[in-house]
Design a protein that fits this description.
Layout lengths: L1 H29 L2 E3 L5 E3 L15 E4 L5 E3 L3 E4 L5 E6 L3 E4 L3 H4 L5 E5 L3 E6 L8 E11 L2 E16 L13 E6 L5 E3 L9 E6 L4 E3 L1 H4 L1 E4 L3 E4 L8 E8 L5 E11 L7 E7 L9 E9 L6 E5 L9 E10 L4 E12 L8 E9 L2 E9 L2
Parallel strand pairs: 5-11, 12-19, 19-24
Antiparallel strand pairs: 1-2, 3-4, 3-6, 6-9, 7-10, 8-9, 10-11, 13-17, 14-15, 14-18, 16-17, 18-19, 20-21, 21-24, 22-25, 23-24, 25-26
Length: about 375
């Protein structure tokens, strides 16, 4: 009886040890060390299918002594100290404040290596405050595109107590108010904690959120959610910290009458009737949005054989109730009319929203 008890106890202990070994082995398999042909061991981890396996931002700032700082949604840096950003990848695209491109700024340089791309900005100032982003470029043969799943951005403030507002290249800016979309008064700051307010110049009054359904974003400025004609006028922003308050550049807010769309074109001739030897003006007029450029193309009977003079101009006009419209005109002049000059005159007006073609016939 004792012999059978000892035998059963021995078998039970053996089974328990075998199960424990199998459990340890299974745990090891999850992060198993596998050996590549070169003899190096690599750790292989299971793939996460719920999206949590996506890597952190690849956009980093290079600090002194070879240290790196992974940038978040916003970053505050000190003006005057060179900035070096890196983004991992063998083919990287960058974006940064547009004025650095506008003036072909030599302080900015971008270099691509095998493993990362490097953006260097020397002697940064408050004016360099803005969004800096990088993204991986993927290619299929000769066609390349931005990988939106691997795009990283950080809004960088170059905090400057002497320049609470991001300096502007213009001392007076125009902001167009449209009834179908929010408007932005772009007084951005270099200190995100600064207390900022919007003021009308005449009559002098501070504009509060209750009056305009207004919000402030330090990366954009004051956002007017529902612009109306009464919001027109000259405005400025004021920022305050512990030091003396500072005033931004001034902004002229104009309400737009004409909605977005293809150009609205009219065509007229002067004088109304002509005969051989007379001079004639054909005027193509477009009413449109104040900040939308319009180009003109003419087709006329004597084209390529007869000289004509074409003059294009534009101006802003107020059309009652505080509405502002841009009037753009192209005038085609024919002098000393000949038989070849009689016929159909066509004007094509084109903008970023589309094009419109109108015509008129000039007969003897």
């Amino acid at each position: 009886m004792n012999l059978w008890a000892v035998l059963c106890l021995t078998l039970l202990v053996g089974e328990l040890q075998n199960g424990a070994c199998q459990q340890v082995k299974r745990r090891k398999d999850i992060g198993e060390n596998r050996i590549r042909p070169g003899g190096k061991r690599v750790k292989v981890w299971p793939t996460l299918k719920d999206g949590r396996g996506r890597s952190h931002s690849l956009l980093t700032q290079v600090l002194d002594k070879g240290r790196f700082l992974r940038l978040g949604q916003s970053t505050i840096l000190t003006p005057g100290k060179n900035m070096e950003l890196r983004c991992k990848g063998s083919k990287i695209g960058w974006s940064y404040p547009t004025y650095l491109d506008t003036f072909n700024n030599s302080r900015l340089s971008i270099k691509q290596s095998d493993k990362y791309s490097q953006l260097i900005l020397t002697s940064p100032s408050a004016a360099d405050t803005g969004a800096y982003s990088c993204w991986v470029i993927v290619c299929d043969g000769t066609e390349c595109e931005k990988d939106h799943d691997r795009a990283y951005v950080s809004y960088i403030y170059f905090k400057d107590k002497d320049n609470l507002f991001v300096p502007s290249t213009m001392h007076f800016e125009i902001v167009y108010l449209r009834p179908d979309q929010p408007a932005v008064v772009p007084c951005r700051v270099t200190e995100p904690q600064a207390k900022t307010s919007l003021h009308r110049e005449v009559p002098p009054v501070e504009i509060t959120a209750n009056m305009t359904q207004m919000a402030y974003d330090p990366t954009k400025g004051f956002i007017l959610q529902n612009p109306r004609p009464e919001h027109q006028g000259v405005f400025y922003c004021k920022a305050e910290t512990m030091d003396t308050p500072q005033i931004s550049t001034k902004y002229q807010l104009l309400y737009v009458e004409v909605p977005s769309g293809p150009p609205f074109v009219s065509l007229e001739t002067s004088p109304d009737s002509v005969r051989g030897g007379d001079n004639i003006n054909v005027t193509c007029t477009v009413l449109g949005e104040p900040d939308v450029d319009v180009s003109f193309t003419w087709t006329y009977p004597g084209q390529g054989s007869r000289p004509v003079h074409i003059q294009t101009s534009w101006r802003l006009v107020n059309r009652g109730m505080g509405y502002t419209t841009r009037v753009t005109q192209s005038i085609l002049t024919v002098e000393d009319m000949e038989t070849i000059d009689f016929g159909e005159y066509m004007c094509k007006a084109k903008s970023q929203h589309g094009e419109t073609i109108v015509g008129t016939t000039i007969s003897k």
